[in-house]
Each structure stands twice: as structure tokens, then as C-alpha cells.
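Something for you to look into today, if you have time. Just paste the record in under my message, thanks.
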Amino acid sequence: MPAGTDAANPAAPGSALSPDGTTLGYSGPEPRTGKPYRLVLQDTHAGRIRRSVVLDAPGRGPVAALAFSKDGRTLAASRNASEDHPDWSTDIIDTATGRVSRTLTDVGGSGAALGGSGDDLVLVTTSSDRVDLRTGRATRNALRNTDLYTVTFSPDGKTLAVSDPTGIALWNGDATQRLGRMPGRPVTPLRFSPDGHSLAGVEDSELLRLWDVPSRRPLGAALPGSGDTLHDVAFDDQGSP
């Protein structure tokens, strides 16, 4: 189902929905300074605020991208470069406590994704960073392309899809081996179906495209939107977009 964008939509910069759909994370102004350095975790059913985390602000930019782990227990907040801090940085947050467990310097991007599970998490970003969160080891240009639009893991964490100017690259769940490509135009965002067998993406903000992941082939022609700009796409529980 195509989706528009608003303050509570995961398509908006600096926002993300947990995999089970129960928690919305988004950044907003910190009341004392008015700067967008506050991270809010909100219950999507009751509407109540579960956590409100004031992120370390001096010299660091606002949140550009959020990514939940598969179990929803960890959240990565990628911070923009700023005049005082010219490089990206990423905070790793425990969603149960709201505590920032570590800050990764010189790591981040306008898009991010968390793969793996438990303590064996892997962070990838649209700047082509790959970080093993268990060891803290970072690999630059791990995805062999720094001109990336979006990164996303399949629900089972076994496949990473990466959109770039010439299509979609598929990687293994550790983001260490490229499995293949699906040539085409750039799409953003990208979403896996619940079973991980299909991919949906938005092209030129107005066309919906679908792919079969196992065969790496498109599923029919592009589908036009309803006339409005398409900002996001999602699959329902039955696997229909």
C-alpha cells in the first residue's frame, strides 16, 4: 500500500517503525534548546510516549536516519554532519532503557539498517559503512559504492537490499558478500514482503515497482500511484503491497 508522509510516518527523515509495528521512533526539538536532538519512542497503539531521549548535542547535527534491530531492542540513530562536526556519527540506543550504549564516530548516512540479532548486530549505512556492533569494527566502502539511496534487510535478516543509481544490489545478511543485482533505475525506499520473497520500491516518486527476490526479476510493469507523490510503500500481512 503506498503511503504519504507526515510527522508520524516512517518515510519522514529521522523516523522509523519497529519491525512488530508497536513502536514509532522519531526525532524532534529538544524543548530547552529547540534543536532537533530529542529522540522519542512512541507506542503506536496507545499513543503514549515510552521514552524521550535527549541526545548529546554539542557540535553534532540532527538525526537523519533511524533503524531498529529485528527484535526492536536496539535503535541506531545516524546523525548529520554539522559545521562544528564535519563527519557523520551514529548513536546506538537500548530501546528498553533509552540509554545510548555507544557512539560510532565517522559512521552514518541519510539511510541506515540493522541486521543480525541479539548481540551480533550489523549496521550498514548509505555511506557504505559496515559496522560489527559486537566488536565495534567498522569497514569503509563495504558495499563498494558510496552513491547509495537506501539500505534494508529482509525480515529474516539473511538478505540486504541496496538501491543505487543503476538498480538494486543484493547482499548476504552480514553485508560481506554480494549475491547479485537487479538492474534498473534508482528506487527509494525499498521494502521486503513479510516472507522476504518480494521487494517493493518507489521510482521517481510516482511509480511502484515489484521484484521477485529469488529469481531477481521484476514482477510485471511499474504501477502508477494514485496521482499523488509516493513517499513510502508497505506490504500487508498477506504479502500484498
Remarks:
- Residues 58-233 form a domain with the Methylamine Dehydrogenase; Chain H fold (CATH 2.130.10.10).
- The chain is about 0% helix and 45% strand.
